[in-house]
Amino acid sequence: MSKILLTVEETREYLGIGETMTRKLMRDEGFGCKIGNRLYSNKVLLDEWLVKKCKRK
After folding, report:
1. What are the angstrom distances between the C-alpha of 41 and each of 10, 14, 25, 44, 53?
2. What is the pLDDT of residue 1?
3. What is the structure's pLDDT at 55?
4. Radius of gyration in angstroms for the set of CA atoms belonging to the chain, rounded to a whole number
5. For residue 2, which phi and psi values (nearest 5 degrees)?
6. What is the pLDDT of residues 15-53, one digit of tens each?
7. Using the 8-state DSSP alphabet, how is residue 28 labeled?
8. Which residue segment(s) compose the domain that 41 sits in?
9. How many domains is the chain built from?
């Protein structure tokens, strides 16, 4: 079984970007979710977001 929720650090490593930008994207782009005081990325939604962002026009 693979993880469906990624921590901020795991998301940052997955995307290869800095923590500040990672947190901003998680809040603004719809793939982040807050559980208690912690912020996580839904990996399924993150991958869908990446596909949409990387499609050629």
Report:
1. 9, 11, 10, 9, 16
2. 64
3. 86
4. 11
5. -100, 160
6. 999 999 999 999 999 999 999 999 999 999 999 999 999
7. H
8. 5-54
9. 1
**Nearby residues of 31 by Cβ (< 8 Å), 6 or more positions away:** 25, 41, 42, 45, 46, 48, 49
Task: Return the closest-CA partner of residue 28 out of 18, 17, 41, 15.
Answer: 41
Residue 24 pLDDT: 97
CATH code for position 16: 3.90.105
- What pLDDT is attached to residue 2? 84
Rounded to whole angstroms, the Cα distance separating 19 from 22 reads 5
Q: Is the pLDDT of residue 57 over 70?
A: no
Residue 22 · residue 12 · CB < 8 Å? yes
Q: How far apart are the first and last CA of the chain?
A: 35
C-alpha span between 19 and 32 (Å, rounded): 14
